[in-house]
Automatic annotation (TrEMBL):
This is DUF885 domain-containing protein. PROSITE patterns: PROKAR_LIPOPROTEIN. Pfam families: DUF885. InterPro entries: DUF885 (IPR010281).
Length: 580
């Protein structure tokens, strides 16, 4: 009897003791991993000061890293040391936040090994070498006094000649497309070393000697840049590399960049089916709308022609260049009120979105974009930058406004602002992980914005046949981006076939299609992020809906999904399904 009691007691004691030490151990492990992350980030900034500056860490602004062999060895040593350190953590025992951070760090490190040893774009992409952007950011930044920033600018200039010498030593059989881009971007950006620097020096309180020294060095920097451009123009390149990445490298780059549960081949098939599905839905709507917009005109026999003619007519409903920004400003509170009324997700009112005219140094980049505060500057404003059409020809403005007509402009605002990018960013800043801020997954971020468009329309937002037809056209863009990217890089798609796909099957203007062709010759994989992320998020939602039946709650799903920060969808999915 006594014995039994003792052993029973011992077991419960053992059990509870085990339980409590286990969670203490886990807490200790998480603490240890948090420390590891701090060290990782500090070491990462040391080898990549430009990346650091880009996210608001400015302690290393005066350093320009020379991309030579010695630097590559430093990077590989860093990667191997970090991969080794990761081995001391059992990922299963970490918190959810640290589990995803662990996997994102590991992916980043392995992806860097792939870039250095297999992708080797530092050999064939001369546009990877350009110092102008990081110098321009020092001049444009508001994070410190002008004098402090100019002194960092001054010290950073020391390495510019060595930087371009290392570039020349690395480059072998570059692609023609990236060579031309490198020449244009380096020459275009080099005004930062004369006009822009001159203007900043005039405003500054630096001594005349210091100013003179900087102007001398700037001349040397500018010459190094023009010499590099000249070298690219005149060095014989008899066997240039093709801009097409090829199936083997593409598949690997896709896995590292998108971090999806789908392979490139799988998402390609899904995109092709989705395009067909969109065409079928669009035909039904366009056919129904024909008389309203085309009266008694005879219907074309080709289905795609019929859709295009109706779209062209609806696109004539648009705002003016003068009202473009105020139209966007007006829609933001409408969207917020709608999301609230329909209980779609919580929007934190303490972090308002500021709509502004695109600042001069960003001009010409995109019609609309979001500037979010980085991890070192969380309390700064989030801006919705709107491009202005001042100085455009009437023809160009008209074409742009037809593209961003009254229907598409609303979808654009859903995508960029509410409940798209801006809303996701507010949630992401609440999940306190610097890793997710700096290594955030592009497919998750873009996928969320694309998912938000569909979700808003499904909930009834401004529903009409016209709205749905235009939404499908917009969605065709991301779908065809994926088809285009994979076809061009792995299936040898010709330029002619590519332009046909974009203009005839995705109803794009010639100028837009030409721009997209240029983009696909210069980048790889990124164009797939929108559709892949969207597909994964949508499918996850449908899977949970099926599983939970009546208990499924859309608002809860959105808030839970966003609470993991900008992690790859496949990891969020794993965590959400395991919580069931
Ligand atoms: Zn018009
Ligand atoms: Zn986006």
């Amino acid at each position: 009897m006594k014995k039994l009691f003792v052993s029973f007691f011992a077991i419960t004691l053992l059990f509870s003791c085990n339980k409590s030490t286990k969670s203490n151990e886990d807490k200790a492990l998480d603490g240890k991993f948090d420390k590891y992350k701090d060290g990782f980030v500090t070491a990462l900034w040391k080898i990549s000061p430009d990346w650091a500056a880009g996210v608001g860490y400015h302690k290393l602004d005066s350093v320009l890293v020379v991309p030579n062999e010695a630097q590559q060895k430093i990077e590989l040593d860093f990667i191997n040391a970090q991969l080794d350190s990761l081995k001391q953590f059992d990922v299963e025992n970490l918190s959810d936040n640290n589990k995803t951070d662990f996997r994102m760090i590991k992916n980043q490190l392995e992806s860097s090994v792939f870039s250095i040893k297999e992708l080797k774009s530092y050999e064939w992409n001369p546009s990877e070498y350009n110092v102008c952007g990081s110098f321009a950011e020092i001049l444009n930044g508001k994070y410190d006094s002008l004098e402090v920033r100019l002194r960092a600018f001054n010290a950073k200039m020391n390495n510019v000649p060595a930087y371009y010498e290392a570039a020349k030593a690395n480059i072998k059989n570059p692609t023609i497309e990236h060579t031309e881009l490198a020449i244009a971007q380096n020459l275009g950006g080099s005004s930062v070393f004369d006009a822009d620097l001159n203007a900043a020096l005039k405003q500054s309180k630096l001594s005349e000697t210091e100013k003179k020294e900087m102007l001398e060095k700037a001349k040397v920097a500018k010459k190094a840049i023009s010499d590099y451009a000249e070298w690219l123009k005149t060095t014989p390149n008899k066997t240039p590399r093709s801009f097409r990445l090829g199936a083997a490298l593409y598949a690997k780059k896709f896995d590292f960049n998108i971090q999806s549960s789908y392979t490139a081949d799988e998402i390609f098939k899904i995109a092709v089916d989705h395009k067909k599905d969109l065409h079928d839905k669009m035909f039904v709507l366009a056919d129904k709308l024909w008389t309203k917009y085309k009266g008694t005109e005879p219907k074309p026999t080709n289905k795609l022609d019929l859709i295009k003619q109706v779209i062209d007519k609806i696109s004539l409903q648009h705002t003016t260049p003068e009202k473009f920004q105020s139209e966007i400003e007006k829609q933001i509170p409408e969207l917020t009120a709608y999301v609230k009324a329909k209980d779609l997700l919580y929007i934190d009112p303490s972090k308002p979105l500021v709509v502004r005219k695109e600042p001069a140094y960003m001009a010409g980049v995109a019609g609309a974009s979001i500037s979010a505060p980085g991890p070192y500057d969380k309390n700064a404003n989030t801006y919705y930058n709107v491009g202005s059409m001042t100085g455009w020809t009437a023809e160009n403005s008209e074409s742009y406004l037809r593209e961003y007509n009254d229907y598409i402009l609303q979808i654009l605002n859903i995508h960029e602002a509410i409940p798209g990018h801006y809303t996701q960013l507010v949630y992401s800043n609440q999940s306190p992980s610097i890793i997710k801020s700096i290594l955030g997954n592009g497919a998750m971020v873009e996928g969320w914005a694309v998912y938000a468009e569909k979700m808003m329309l499904e909930s009834g937002y401004k529903n009409s046949d016209e709205m749905w037809l235009m939404y499908y056209k917009w969605n065709l863009r991301t779908t065809c981006n994926t088809i285009l990217d994979i076809s061009v890089h792995t299936k040898n798609m010709s330029k002619e076939a590519a332009i046909d796909l974009l203009t005839k099957e995705a109803f794009q203007q010639q100028a837009e299609a030409d721009g997209k062709w240029k983009r696909v010759t210069l980048s790889q994989v990124q164009l797939c992020s929108y559709f892949t992320g969207y597909t994964e998020i949508y499918n996850l939602r449908e899977e949970l809906k099926k599983k939970e039946g009546d208990k499924f709650n859309l608002k809860k799903f959105h808030e839970k999904f966003l609470s993991f920060g900008s992690a790859p969808v496949k990891y969020i999915k794993e965590l959400m399904l395991s919580k069931e």
